[in-house]
Design goal:
36% of the residues lie in helices and 19% in strands. Helix 5 packs across helix 12.
């Protein structure tokens, strides 16, 4: 039809409209229940037109509640104007499409867990973009990569190896671990994700893409089913829907129920600790839920089969793209972290060389000689020694209140520096935690210097003592950078390995690295908590 068409459309949804229009709800004398009436007519130049049966008019009737078994009737008026409703037709009940961005595709508890951690990394509130980013980071491949990153974070606590109980000398050299202190609170073990399964976030990101906007995926009905798909722990259930978009919703519901009925838990596999496909304990209830969904006999969106045909093969293609996209972002993140780790390890090797030189300087001053098995004292033993093993503890008042605290003992008689160890920033000690002593000059004047930092402020404590005194107390006072430099200037002529200013530069580097690792570990822990929230019901065996 190429000419202009006149369309007449009248609606009667309220009781008033129905009565005023004399639209009785009667079919051959039988009372009907109505959910609304419309009048539709089309003419062209006064000529009555007919609707093409191969391209019919699509009409939707608004309703607050969809009633089952409703039918469409044709109205016929008699000579008195009374209407009789005849020729009932079964309604095609299509699902309504909703903007994908308005649908909740997150698993139960996820959003609440994110909200509970706000503010986070500069975000004052949990935006949709942040929640998406966090959810997609829960892919199993990414979590395993994060595990490796966590395991390989470099240590940041180092000191001279001689007093380390775990030191080892191999081929005439200290091992790398010999320099690490036992007071650093590192990562005990990374989390074991191999005993979990669940809906892969990559699949969710795939179906939330624009081409699925005109399919049954973009409906409130699918949104409701997705909550139970998460509970099922089976990716295959999700793919029943995403790969069969041409079918009616009720058919997919039945396929999902039948699939769940075929899943069985293998107790032997659980006990062996092997990775396995497992099911939640309430599997039967979930199966029944999908059978109940199926009994609703929901169909598809209008044009669903047409869009399904257009999307044929698209799902697998898009899935590969999404997986590649997420892996690329995650690998980029991990590569950056690995590069940072390598830079730290480079500085660490430099500092270890300095620590060995510092130890070597003091030990050789005492008459020791380095061999393939470590330090050996080569004197004859007939001359009284001017040095000996003595205990030393330094108590820094309120040290735990500061961000960083570093405490040194300076043996001015031999121009030697030693940084004391600590586990709490208040009690500092020579040697190791169980043997708090070291080789030192006998009854000589020495100096304890403690430097602390709190935000942008710097604090200094200084105390002279005579070696052999096992305990020294230090008070910290606010100082300026100039005052610190003045206090340390008298030690500028010490060898580089015994220069306190140089050691503080390394301490500043390691403090910065500790903060980086703290933030990174906090991020990993947050991701882990989200994972447990989402996948706690999809646990398949024993493990951490």
């Amino acid at each position: 039809m190429e000419e202009n068409i006149d369309i007449e459309l009248a609606e009667a949804f309220s009781l008033t409209d129905i009565l005023l229009s004399n639209l009785a709800t009667v079919s051959d004398g039988k009372q009907l229940i109505t959910d609304g009436m419309i009048y539709f007519n089309a003419t062209s130049n006064g000529e009555q037109l007919k609707i093409n049966k191969n391209n019919p008019i699509y009409i939707e009737i608004p309703t607050d509640e969809r009633k089952p078994d409703m039918q469409a009737y044709k109205g016929e008026r008699d000579e008195n104007g009374n209407i009789n409703w005849v020729d009932p037709k079964k309604l095609e009940t299509f699902l309504n499409i909703v903007d994908l961005g308005l649908l909740d595709f997150y698993p139960k508890g996820f959003e609440a867990e994110v909200e509970a951690h706000m503010p986070y990394k500069g975000h004052e509130y949990a935006s949709k973009e942040l929640k998406d980013s966090l959810f997609y980071s829960l892919s199993f491949d990414n979590l395993i990569r994060m595990n490796e990153l966590e395991k390989n974070l470099p240590a940041t606590g180092y000191n001279e190896p001689y007093y380390n109980k775990n030191k080892q000398v191999v081929d005439g050299k200290y091992t790398a671990d010999s320099y690490e202190t036992e007071y650093e609170h590192g990562v005990d073990s990374a989390y074991n994700y191999s005993f979990f399964q669940g809906i892969d976030p990559v699949l969710i990101k795939t179906i939330r893409s624009k081409p699925f906007q005109n399919t049954l995926i973009a409906t409130r009905e699918f949104e409701k089913r997705l909550a139970y798909i998460y509970e099922s722990c089976h990716n295959s259930i999700l793919e029943i829907y995403s790969k069969n978009l041409d079918k009616n919703m009720w058919e997919l519901d039945m396929m999902a129920a039948d699939y769940l009925n075929s899943r069985k838990i293998d107790p032997d596999a659980i006990n062996s600790g092997d990775k396995m496909e497992c099911s939640p304990t309430n599997l039967k209830e979930i199966e029944q839920t999908f059978r109940n969904f199926s009994s609703q006999k929901l169909t598809n969106v209008k044009g669903g089969k047409k869009y399904a045909t257009l999307l044929k093969g698209y799902y697998e293609k898009r899935l590969k793209e999404v997986r590649k996209e997420l892996e690329s972002k995650q690998k980029e993140f991990l590569q950056k972290r690995k590069k940072e780790n390598e830079e730290v390890k480079k500085v660490t090797e430099e500092y270890k060389k300095l620590l060995f030189k510092r130890e070597k300087y003091r030990m050789e001053t005492y008459g020791f000689e380095w061999t393939n098995t470590g330090w050996i004292n080569i004197d004859t033993g007939t001359i009284p020694k001017t040095w000996g093993r003595k205990g030393l503890e330094v108590f820094v008042k309120n040290g735990s209140e500061y961000d960083q605290v570093y405490t040194y003992v300076i043996y001015s008689s031999i121009k030697s520096l030693y940084r004391l160890n600590t586990a709490d920033k208040e009690t500092f000690f020579a040697g190791n935690n169980s043997d708090r002593e070291m080789l030192m000059p006998k009854k000589k004047q020495a100096t304890i210097i403690s430097i602390a930092y709190k935000e942008e402020k710097i604090f200094l404590g200084k105390q002279d003592f005579i070696t052999g005194n096992p305990s020294v107390v230090i008070n910290l006072f606010s100082s300026s950078k100039t005052e610190i430099e003045k206090a340390l200037k008298r030690y500028d002529n010490y060898s580089p390995e015994n220069n306190i200013g140089k050691d503080l530069q390394y301490m500043a580097f390691f403090a910065k690295e500790q903060n980086r690792q703290k933030e990174l570990l906090s991020e990993i822990e947050f991701t882990r908590e989200l994972f447990i929230t989402v996948y706690s019901e999809c646990y398949c065996g024993s493990g951490n």
